[in-house]
Every structure is written in C-alpha cells, then in structure tokens.
Amino acid sequence: MTKLSEIALNGLALGSVYALIALGFVVIFKASGVMNFAHASLLLLGGYVIARFHDELGFAGAVVVGVLATAAAAGVIEVLFIRGLGKVELHVLTILTIGVDILLTTELVRRIGSDKLSLGDPWGTDAAHIGDVYVAEARIAAIVVAVVLIGVFFIAFRFTSWGLSMRAASEDREAAALMGVRMKRVQLIAWCVAGGLAAVAAVFLTAAPTPGLDRTTGLVALKAFPAAVLGGMDSALGALIGSLLVGLTEALAAGYQSELDAFGGDVSSVAPYVVMILVLLVRPTGLLGSKELSRV
Amino acid sequence: MSDRLAALLRPAALGTLAGLVVLAALPFYLTDFWLLTGLFAMAAALGAIGLNLLSGTTGQLSLGHSFFLAVGAYGYIWFAGDDGRSGTHDVTGLGLPTPIALVAAVLLAGVMGGLFSPISGRLRGMYLGVATLALVFIGEHVMNNATTVTGGYNGRAAEPMTFFGFTLTDREPHLEVLGIEFGAYERLWYLALVLLVVGVVVARNLLRGRPGRALGAVRDSEIAAAVMGVPVARYRSAAFVVSSMYAGLAGVLLALVFGRVIPDYFGLALSIDYLAMIVIGGLGSVGGAVAGAAFVTVLPQLFAHYAGALPLVTATGTDGIGPQEASRYLYGAAIVLVLLFSPGGLAGLARRTAAPRRRAAGHGATSRPRTKEPQGADT
Predict the structure, then answer these.
(1) CB within 8 A of A31, min separation 6: which ones?
(2) DSSP string, B176-241
(3) Does the beta-carbon distance from B129 to A265 stay under 8 Å?
C-alpha cells in the first residue's frame, strides 16, 4: 500500500508538471489553431535562462526572469512566424513550429553542450514524510505550484475579460473579431502564457531527484502531447485530466516494471502513448474535446 | 508515332531524359562519399514521395513515417536473414531470396499501414499527427525489445541484395566498367535509380489519375468528396497504406546502403526530416518531394565536407558554430523561410519562374493545398 501511495504521489507530481505544459498546448491551439512543436525548445529556454541567472539573482529572481524571457520568446514566435501566415493549412503551421523549434533548440544545445546545469532550486534531495510515504520535496512543491497556477489559470479563463475573449475566439474567430475582440492581442497573450507555463514546468522537470537541465530536457514536452490530445485539444479541463492520467500511468508502469517485463524493459516511456491510442480509438477527439462539426 | 516523337521532344521530357542520363553517369565520376550521399538522397526521395502522398495530397499529417521506414528495413533484414547470432542476441530469419524479401518487406510495411487504419481512418488533423507520433515511440520500444528480429540496441546486419548470383557488394563477381571498378555503392546506385524512377512514375500516375483527384478532394473537404461519391474512409486508409509501402521501400534501400541497421536511427528526428523534405520541396508535388529529399540529405554532408572553406563555420569540437550546427540552422531556417515566403516549396518556386503565365490561373489542382482546414472547436 505504501508503495502504491508513493507511486500515486509521484505520478500526480509528474502529471501536474505535464499539465503545465499541456495547458500551454491547449491555450495556443485555442488561440491560433496550431499544435506548437516549438514548446520543447521554449521549455529548454526557460530552464537555461533560470540556470544562467540563479547565481546572481537567487532562485526566485531567476525564475521570474526565466518565466518573463520565455513568455517574451513565445510572443516573438507568434508575432514573427504565426501571425503573418493567417489562414493556412493546419499542418503547414505545425511544420513551421517544428522549424522554429529546430532553430531555437540548436542554439540552446550549442550553449548547453554536454553539461548538466543546476537550476539552483531550494529543495535539494530532501524527502518529505507523510505517514509511511516518502516523497521528494520537489515533487510536493510541483503539485502545490501546479495546483495554484492551474487554479489561477482557470479563474482567469472564467472571470477575466481576456478569458472571455479567449473563449469567444476559440468558439468562432470571425464572430469574435466582429464583436470587437482584439484577436491579435488575445493570441499574443495566449502564446506568452503558454511560454511562461513552460518555464515553470522546466523548474520542476529539472529539480531533484532529477540530475538537472541537459540538452534533452525539452523532449519531455513530447510526452505532454499525448496528455493534451487524449484530453481533447481544445479543452483545458481535458488537458488537466489527460496530464494526470499520463503522469499516473507513467509512474505506475515505472513502479511495477518488474511485473511488466513481458512487454520489454522501460515500459513507462511508451505507456502514455499506448493510453492515448486506446482513448483515441474510442473517442477520436479525446475525452473532452468538442466534436468536429462541419458545414458544407 | 509522330505525336509520340513530338511528346518526347518537349523541353520537359528532354530535361527529364537529360537528368536520367546524368544520374546514370554519376557513378563514373563521384567519389564513394558522394555516391553514399546520393544513395541516401534517393532512398529519402522514395520515402518523401510516400509521405507527400499522405500529408501533401491527402492532408493527413503523419509524424510516424520513420516507423514505416523501420518496418521496411527490419522486414527486409528478417525476411532475407538467417538464424544466427548478432552481437549478444540470438536472431532469427526466414532466409528468403533477397528480391523476394524486398517485395515482402514492402508488403509488410503496407500491411502495418493498413493495421493502423482504425486510427488513420477516424482521426483528423492534429489528433492524427499526435497519434502517429505514438507510432514512433512504440516502434522504438518494440525495436529495442524484439531482439530476435532486430538484434536489439546494436542493430543487425542486412543481407546484401543478390540477383541470380550477381551480388550488390564489392566482390562476387568482380566488375569493372570503362576502367571504373564497380563496388557495392556503384551497383546499389543503379538499383536505387531504377526503384526511384519506378516510384516517381507510379506516384505521378496515381496523382494524375482518379485516385489523385479523389485524394485531393478528400483533403479539401471530406464531406464534399463524400457527396461526389468518393469513399472517404477507404481512400484515407489507402493513402496510408501506399505511403507506408513507399516508406518500406525506402527502408529496404537504407538497410542495403547502411549494411547494418540500428533502432536509434528511426527516431522522431527522422520523421521530422521527412516532413521537412516535403515542405521544402512543395506539398503535393512528386518532383518537389525528390528535390526536398536531395536538399535535406545533401545539405549536412556539404557542410561537413566544406566546413574549412566556409566563413563563420568552424571545425567540429572547437568553439563557435560547427558544421553540424550550421546545417541544423540552415535546415530550420529553410523550413521557416520556405513556409513564410513560398508556401508551395521548391516546386512552387519552379512553377512560378518557369511559367509566369499560369500564375493567374492558380496552381495545379494537386500541387497546392487549399487554405481551409477545420480546426476543432472553431468550425
């Protein structure tokens, strides 16, 4: 039972980090209608900026700088590359973000080299006890921070005028624009929010017990794809549920690897994708994604 | 007869003919390094044609192309290979004659594409893209674990191709043509060239005939296509199958060229390379796919080869921008710039410069995707 609770807590922590990334995907998808592959490099950028500045500014200051820098970078990508294209085919935009990702990742990987950078997070390797259960403090922090941020996000989405514009925009872009929603601003803010969330996710992806930021950290964003998709690309709540599902599955598969040896080693790395395929077989637009309606 | 002669003498046909002659003559002039690069480019071109049928013409985004390449490569190795040991693993094989193994591997890739049809027939847009992403990761997992077929992490050697006792290797029989020794790469070159020509012709005929029109209609509007009598689900699945078979063929060629195939090669990066090829070449255009494949394959090699002579680029391992990084930059920039300034890719550019008169009439039906795409909740 202790093992199961430990696994569940770790899974929740992992899931909440995925949720930060997946929410970014959903926000961008709702605003610009594109699956943002450049998210992996934004995540890496956030981590890199924080790692560079934590000596001078302290951890908190570095996180603020990192979040702002990543948000700004996401905004720049939107302004430079996405906005100008207007209405083009979905996968043209998607491939464009892949191109941007290649550029940014190449630069960051060149700078990081083969180092493992510490982000200077305050949690170290301490573990917290809850009853018999041992969990790394960083994991608890990940859950708490994610809950707070996601809570703020949902409140903003529900009650602020940006949230209203955002919902209107994803409902019907043209109608929203005609009603006076400033689409450009809504989209820009969406990208910035997504970038900021990615930077926060980077902190928890590299905090103990993980060794630190290296050139492959950005690839974790790829695991948030199944999370966003199995929840439904245009549903923030779906992304949350999907992320927790993916996080729990991964943790369970890793924890019970010895029972799963029949499926080969390291099952946890493919478990999210298997879950996603199974869900999509039953519900082709994810758990909470809106069905595609078409007019001719 | 005079009509056919006239058709042969058209500039386009003459250009194609000249291109073929040049390609056939290249082994007499190129060093092994460039022959190898050319072989990779031809294999990539076959794969890119397949992906273009799927993503360019039918509008189904696939990030799983490398999975089908892997199926082709390992399928060939398994069909042609014998039982034995590879590194630390026992491996099995059917020991079929190699030409039959090639055909069987291509068919196997097609069957795998068909098995994916419950997904590919139902999912749309981004959902399909991410679902195919799963194929890459699940495929990597299977490749690393199914050691009796793949030889595990360190890969497995591929049986060289043999036609009636004539092997595509450096020896058996020793062959010299016009004073040039014909080694494995020279021999493989002609196999690759034949396969590529067949692949291009088949793809063109497919696209120009009824299936191509139907697939284009499916891309532009599934409902309109269905109303016109196109069985949408069947065509979507069929596009996936044909595209997988092209990928499988490319995989077999790669296995033959490499001589040894490792699972790591078939990662997500490879899928993205193929997407980049068709985007840079021009979505929906067969010639564009070939050009894009050549561009993406040859570019890094050019940089690696001429790193010393280029400004700003330094040798690998020193400070500054190495050749590897320089080619990554150029590659990323090429994708972004092509999409921003010439969404038709290289094929679109060529069309615009070659026939300015046609510009007013718009691009060809199969060459330029239309701009409307349902976007989940937005529609």
Answers:
(1) A166, A169, A170, A186, A187, A190, A191
(2) EETTEE--HHHHHHHHHHHHHHHHHHHHHHHHHSHHHHHHHHHHH-HHHHHHTT--HHHHHHHHHH
(3) no
User: How many helices (H) and strands (E) in chain B?
Assistant: 16, 8
What is the Cα–Cα distance from A92 to A103, expressed in whole angstroms?
A: 17
CB contacts under 8 A, B 254-273 vs A, are 268, 272
- Specify the DSSP element, H or E, that contains A241: helix A236-255
Is B61–A88 a contact, with Cβ atoms under 8 angstroms apart?
Answer: no
What the block records as the tokens of A46 is: 């956030």
User: pLDDT value at position A214?
Assistant: 78
CB–CB contact B131 A92 (8 Å) = no
Phi-psi region of B108 (alpha: psi -120 to 50; beta: other; left: phi over 0): alpha
Residue among A30, A79, A85, A98 with most chain B CBs within 10 A, to mutate: A98
Whole-complex ipTM: 0.82
- Tell if the CB–CB gap between B336 and A295 is shorter than 8 Å: no
Q: What is the pLDDT of residues A216-245, one digit of tens each?
A: 777 888 888 888 888 888 788 888 888 999
Q: Closest Cα partner for B30 from B183, B255, B254?
A: B183
pLDDT over threshold 80, residue B205: yes
Closest approach of chain B CAs to the CA of A34, in angstroms?
8
| Residue-averaged pLDDT of chain B | 78
Break chain B into its structural domains and give their ranges: 1-29, 31-368
Higher pLDDT, B287 or B311: B287
pLDDT tens-place string over residues A75-112: 998 888 887 766 666 667 888 888 899 889 888 888 88
C-alpha B56/C-alpha B341 separation (Å) is 18
Single-letter code of the amino acid located at B120: S
DSSP A180: T
Residues of A in contact with B279 (CB under 8 A): 92, 95
Tokens of B281: 């070449």
Which letter, b or e, does each residue of A41-64 get, where b requires 16 or more Cβ atoms within 10 Å of its Cβ?
bbbbbbbbbbbbbbeebebeebbe
Cis peptide before B356 (omega within 30 of 0): no
pLDDT in tens, B49-106: 999 888 878 878 888 899 999 999 998 988 887 777 766 777 777 777 888 888 999 9
The torsion region of residue A107 among left (phi > 0), alpha (psi -120 to 50) and beta comes to alpha
Smallest CA–CA distance, residue B263 to chain A, in Å, is: 15
Which amino acid type is present at position A224? A
Q: Exposed, middle or buried: residue A85 (CB in 10 Å: 0-12, 13-18, 19+)?
A: middle
Name the fold adopted by B31-368.
ABC transporter involved in vitamin B12 uptake, BtuC (1.10.3470)
Stretch 201-240 of chain B: residues touching chain A, C-beta under 8 Å: 221-224, 227
Residue A293 confidence (pLDDT) above 70: no
Which run of H or of E encompasses B80? Answer: helix B65-80
Taking each helix axis as running N to C, give the angle between helix A236-255 and helix A271-282, from 0 to 180 degrees, rounded to the nearest 10: 130
| Å between B256 CA and nearest CA of chain A | 28
**Mean pLDDT for the stretch of residues B305-327:** 65
Q: What are phi and psi of B368, to 5 degrees?
A: -125, 115
Task: Please give, rounded to a whole number of angstroms, the shortest distance from the CA of A25 to a CA of chain B.
Answer: 12
